[in-house]
User: Fold these one by one.
Assistant:
Number 1:
Amino acid sequence: MPVRIRLQRHGKKGKPFYWVVAADSRSKRDGKFLEKLGVYNPNTNPATIDLNVDSSVKWLQNGAQPSDTARAILSYKGVMLKHHLLGGLRKGALTEEQVEERFNAWLEEKQNKIQAKKDGLSKADAEAKSKALQAEKEANEKRIAAAAPVEEEVAEEAAAEVAAEEPAGQDAPAEVEAAEAPAEVEEAAAEEAPAKAEEAAPAKEEEAPKKED
């Protein structure tokens, strides 16, 4: 039975992740499989790969053929290297200690490269956030600076309107008082005139009989 190491799709639309499986080459892509070897998630940066190296090497030694994508994943995790080193061990070119030493050295170097990439991505992300905050701050300052002259102009117009209304409001009572003052004087004079006329009339009546005597 020909065995193929390939990817089996899972996840939801737009965000898939994959299982790395060993399956019969005649079965459907997402059908039955012989063994699940790991998980590949391309939605993270860098991509997340969790792989059983020893089982993958075992299937390669038994003649399983990986697909192009699966081969790239196996190579990324060191499966192809270990398979090659174990081939040298079988031929007597390497010892088990040499195989383990070379493989562990490769893993350490690979891990350092992955960590350096993660650090670079974190630094780039921090710089992008800092630039975004700075740009937002500058935009807010420009918006405030642009709004300040408008507010000052509105305040000046309001002050001018108040100043224009105040003289009219202050002069009005004085004009009213000035207009009402003569009317009050005339009313007082009109009230005093009948009283003087009445006082003068009895005096004349009393004087008249004295002249007849």
Number 2:
Amino acid sequence: MFDFFLGLLSHDLGIDLGTANTLVYVKGKGIAIREPSVVARHRKTKKIVAIGREAKRMLGKTPQTIEAFRPLKDGVIADFDAAAAMLTHYIKLVHESPNPSIFPKIPRPRVVIGIPSGVTEVERRAVQEAAIMAGAREAILIEEPMAGAIGAGLPIQDSSGSFICDIGGGTSEIAVLSLGGIVVNRSIRIAGDEMDEAVTNFMRLKYSLLIGEQTAEAVKIAIGSAYPTEKVERQTVVRGRDIERGLPKSIRVNESEIREALAPTIHEIIEGISETIEETPPELVSDIVEHGIVLAGGGALIRGIDKLIANEMKMPVWVTDDPQTAVVRGCGKLLDDISLLRKINVAARKI
């Protein structure tokens, strides 16, 4: 009963703690924060200089005294202190009292966090510790494919099978769901970051052009594709440093070149989908063939990736609405359905 009243007074949160981006859903209000998972801090004092978009603008541009980096790698916490500082910053942003003179202190929030399905017990505990340290009264962990399926509106509690592939920044989460649980799943650490790396390597090998992480991501977003979808190919200018001469260099690249660069990474994801289907019980496979594969996550925005997967797997494939927010929307829906949340969570910890 006491916990019920705390829930009324506090702003319970759903968080998609992603390798590339962190999204925060506030119960009753919707998505309040959508920021890059980047932190900038002083190397010696460890004082936080910037978080989110401001920190991302510093990537590759900092002096020796400041480091700008992602505190998460491959979907898990790589730098605990920085991750805790980032979570604390975002929780404070949405959880400060609107009128401190009347409500001097709002009770700590319950926080539902989406995590990769393949993380270890130690990695789960690190996420919970970071959330509690950031100000949560209770940290509840949900596997990302389950949260993404709920956000996409899939009938996860039905006896029919649902197939979701969530292509994030650090991991691709592939799962078959039925009767409120995960029947078969695969978490592969090949996703958006590897696509950026593929673009960087392509530029270096073909054009002797050295580009940074942000430039590679911008090229992927601008003209990246998995399948030829348009008659006229898009082009973009890429600027970097000539490896041979060490001078600035600009080149024009087209869509087919970037498609060639992304192909090996995308095919590894398709291979993961194929292996997951191979392990799926036959009765559920027939449901998947009927209903199709659902794509979520930022990687689902690569043009033509749904058509390529459909061609390879010989079954329907569709991209959910606003795929980047599917996981955080699923976490938000679970805040309104505590009984389902208690049923499907993989770990929960109160202070």
Number 3:
Amino acid sequence: MRFVTFTRNASDPRPGVLVGPEKQPWVLDLRAAAERSEEIQFASTSMLDLIEGGERAIDTVRRIVERASAEGELSYPLGTVTLLAPVPEPPQMRDFSVFPGHIRNAPAGMQRIAARKQGDECKAKALKPLDDIPQVYRERPIYYITNRFSVSGHDADVTWPDYSGLMDFELEFGIFLSRGGRNIPASEARKHIFGYTVYNDFSARDTQFEEMQGMLGPAKGKSFDAGNVLGPWIVTSDEIPDPYSLVMRARVNGETWTDSDGSGMLHSFEEMIAYVSRGETLRAGEFFGSGTVGGGCGLELDRWLQHGDIVELEVERIGVLRNRVLCANGS
């Protein structure tokens, strides 16, 4: 199943599920359908409530979909609704870095920023990726915690903060946890994956470069309004038995900037869950980002976004996440 959070009047977010043909789906209003089918215990849920409801909630959704299949007034063409992030306020958001290409390429990109700040274009052009991956990335899944309130969804405009001049995207995908737990073995962690979504971790690279000198990770380089974009929906884990070789593409104004795939991750999502849950209780609905696929951002490609650019991130079997970038001053 593919789950969404949607609105029709900008003030009443509702959980929904896609029904009908895959290429021209409709959005079934789960709240309205639950009320119609007298599934009262489900009638006022959010997407987070649904996830927290576990298998019983999913079974209820299946019954609702079956009963509502002939009631067209409970469904809307996908193009007539506004999609929010599938979970507009996740309980927690963690973003990892597990793709070897990005780990090797990103330091050269940051050094290019430094060289250009010093006016040394020759040095900037001569910089090369790391020869090897730092051992710490092989030993454990490295991650940081980002702002769970700075979340937006498909087709949302992302207004760039006025303190940054280097606008960048990051091509990622990620998981929502289906249940909580502590000290979860990797062998059991698959049961904790509710589903998958596309993630654009927009990044203010010049600000990130300055902050990283403090050795505490990114802050305002990542945390600004609407900068964490999730969507367009959650595809449940049973629909994607093997998420580790999916084709991943990034397009800017229709031009392909990245054509890659999700193979070669240093650590699986199951291993991420096991690592983070060591001595720490996780909650249903938390989001784990994969980190950027190799070549999946302008920092690696030495290309930057401009005012009005349309960024599309596509992950096979999940979908296409689209956003427009706007400068705060309109230029």
Number 4:
Amino acid sequence: MSGSAKPKAVVLLSGGLDSAVTLAMAAAEGFEPHALTVRYGQRHAAEIAAAERVARRHGVAGHDVVDVDLAAFGGSALTGAGEVPKDRGAAAIAAGIPVTYVPARNTVFLALALARAETLGARHIFLGVNALDYSGYPDCRPEFVAAFERLANLATKAGVEAARDGQPQIRLHAPLIAMTKAEIVGKGAELGVDFASTLSCYDPRPVRSDKGARHCGRCDACQLRKKGFAEAGVVDPTDYEA
């Protein structure tokens, strides 16, 4: 990026491995990252603490934590009392949309990021969705990202005025979209991501005072995380229960 001032970017930061790598990539590409984390009614607060650790580690320009209670609607094992799937094989993980899908979550998150971007004067939004090693979520697909980018430029003052004046429009960046989990881990290692600070687990064990929450080691997210480190040949610092 040229010029003395870095362009601002809003980075959706869940505290998970993927969002931490996305944040590191945004910074490496010359953006001034402003992290946005959503407390959406998830069953545990451990990922909020993880997001705060990651934000501090990477020295973001700002970190907003916004409350939107998606648990009020239910419909997901992550916001309700339903069982989180455990010990599923790769074929089962890749088949269908799992009960851990939170209805319209990424649509809501991106709408919030878009609003924050407008108030900051930012034209860039980063999100860590992935369409290869992922658990069947419809809002992690390239078609979704492209559609929301079109909406962002139609639905905002910034987008309309940019089109009118021939200025750069709002861009959605999904740098992990076509990467395997192993490639994501490798990229994170290259950029110095502190993987031990991140939390991927859908059903973490109780928070401990020294190291945060412990990964269950058996949910879909933990299995994909383990697979990524193993295939990348990177030492996995994660504390798993199993």
